Amino acid sequence: MSVGETLPETDVDAAIASVCRPGLVQLTSVQVAASSAELIELMQQAAESLRQQHAGDPPGSIERVQVVRAMYRDLGMDPHHTRPSSEALLRRVLRGDDLPRVNRIVDAANLWSLQTLCPVGLYNAGRIEGPISFRFGTEGEGYQGIRKDWVNVSDRPALFDRAGPFGNPTSDSARTAVDESTRAVLAVAFQPAAFPTTEVEDLADILARFGARAA
After folding, report:
1. 33-55 residue pLDDT tens
2. Domain count of the chain?
3. Predicted TM-score (pTM) above 0.70
């Protein structure tokens, strides 16, 4: 499913499409700045709701976490070794830690990820070169991660443009990272096939609500 205007051409490998349904959202005229008090409050509310709902529960017992982990395994990844970004946020919350505050675009995407327990990648659309493919990487392919060393995508699903791989359901690349120079963003929800497509519309609404530049 795709939401937004001027979305890049995207090709999804058939072996991936049967397991993972990427939902694309593109938002132009964004403003990358500190999160509003309203967004911070919603993040805190979502975190507290999860703490109350799953107090004492191991993350692996939560149904949506199980579905995302199954998606990883079906794509040839070990969800314990390469943890889904959504589960990493959940674990942080259940430990009682605060959610990271980066900027209003990243924080809004994290809010959606926490609400749905679904991984989402967020990219500076201005740094994506040409059409996108979602395919398995070949030997030697990878990218410099955000605050991480080299991310190997050999035999793993990843997003590619003409310049190479730039993201997967676990970590995004430094090359396409969202920063203060970003004017348009592309968000990719890495949804298991069982998750409802309407959640992508929710992602579009959250990003537009908190990240769009005022007219």
Report:
1. 999 999 999 999 999 999 999 99
2. 1
3. yes
